[in-house]
Amino acid sequence: MTRKILTGLSSAAYEHPFDRKALASLQNMPGVSLLLKKINEYGIDRLLRLQSLGSEIRISPRNFPQLHEAFVETCQILDVAPLPELYLFRGAGHIESYIVGVEKPLVGINLDAMEWLGADELLYVFGHEIARIKSQHMVYHQMAIVMPTLKNLLSSTTLGVGGLLAGGMELGLYNWRMMARFTADRAALLACQDIDVATTTLMKLAGLPDEYLTTSVIEDFLVQAREFAANNFDSVDKVTKILSYTEPGLSWVVMRAGELLKWVDSGAYDNLIQQTDLNTLEESEEPEESEEKEDKTPEEKEGWNFLTSW
Q: What's phi and psi for 106, nearest 5 deg?
């Protein structure tokens, strides 16, 4: 398959509106500048990089050529340079990947991902991580990674005041991280350029290996994803949503698949991929509507967020 190289691609062309609003809300929270200052003081960026450099295997064209080739192709398609470093680590029985490093990004992927995913599916996973660089969101992404530790440090060093501020920001970060996944999934689809590949990758992220991905299983998954995306889930208690989202290991692949399918079904993906001048293309998913219209989608509601607007 020959994929289009998206030279000049801007993240504004595919950024999910939920992501935009959640980040703006997070940036306006009191205490964000304090938290960023603490991250710099403790040298978090360097420490996270050192963890990977000191315990994981660096990927090169020589030792793991298929992995390296997929990574290089992803960065070329999404127009990301210079090429970040890539590392391989031992996982815990499911597919994992991450990105750290504000000044010098570094991507990690685990052995399960290398063994479970085909070459095209690797592009999707790598694209999801590279999207953080493309959107220039690494500082907030990294803040979310270390938030639990920083909250305790702030609480102990500022007589609890910093801890209270950090507690509020933690929920803001939970909300933004989920919304940012929607943007990252769009970038991942732009990398692999095949919704079928995106679908099977998300199903593998949910824990299903190749042998279970029959036609009927995939078709039922798509039905489930579309049903999820079509509901607002107003009956779900806010506390339940907070607890379920903060539970480690949840990937929300059904919800993510539903949002990605909505983007494809709207024609926005095809419109973007067919553009010849990506430098001037901007996201136009939120047309202006008259005040009289009441049946707005969650995406059109001001201040929609993961925690409060199902």
A: -140, 130
Q: Please, where are the H alpha helices in the chain?
A: 17-27, 32-41, 44-55, 65-77, 111-116, 119-134, 138-157, 161-192, 195-205, 215-229, 238-246, 253-265, 268-273
3-state SS, residue 106: strand
For residues 12 and 283, give the distance between their C-alpha atoms in angstroms, rounded to a whole number. Answer: 6
Q: What is the pLDDT of residues 125-181, one digit of tens each?
A: 999 999 999 999 898 888 888 776 666 665 555 544 455 455 567 778 878 888 899
85 sits in which H/E element? strand 85-89
CA atoms within 13 A on the CB side of 106: 21
State the Cα–Cα distance between residues 141 and 129, nearest whole angstrom: 11
Within 8 A by CB and 6+ apart from 69, the residues are 61, 119
Evaluated on CA atoms 260, 265, 268, 274, the torsion sign reads positive
Compute the mean pLDDT over every residue in the chain, rounded to the nearest whole number: 82
Q: What amino acid is encoded at 200 in this protein?
A: T
If one counts every other C-beta atom within 10 angstroms of the C-beta of residue 257, the result is: 26
- How far is the CA of 70 from the CAs of 81, 122, 126, in angstroms? 15, 6, 8
Q: What is the pTM of this model?
A: 0.84
Residue 159: phi and psi, rounded to 5, are 55, 30
Distance CA 231, CA 226 (A): 9
Q: Which residue has the tokens 């996973």?
A: 125
- pLDDT value at 124 more than 90: yes
AA identity, residue 114: M
Residue 29 binned pLDDT confidence (cut-offs 50, 70, 90): confident
DSSP codes, 13-82: GT--HHHHHHHHHHHTSTTHHHHHHHHHHTTHHHHHHHHHHHHSEEP-TTTSHHHHHHHHHHHHHTT--S
For the ranges 11-15, 78-82, 253-257, 286-290, which has the lowest average pLDDT? 286-290
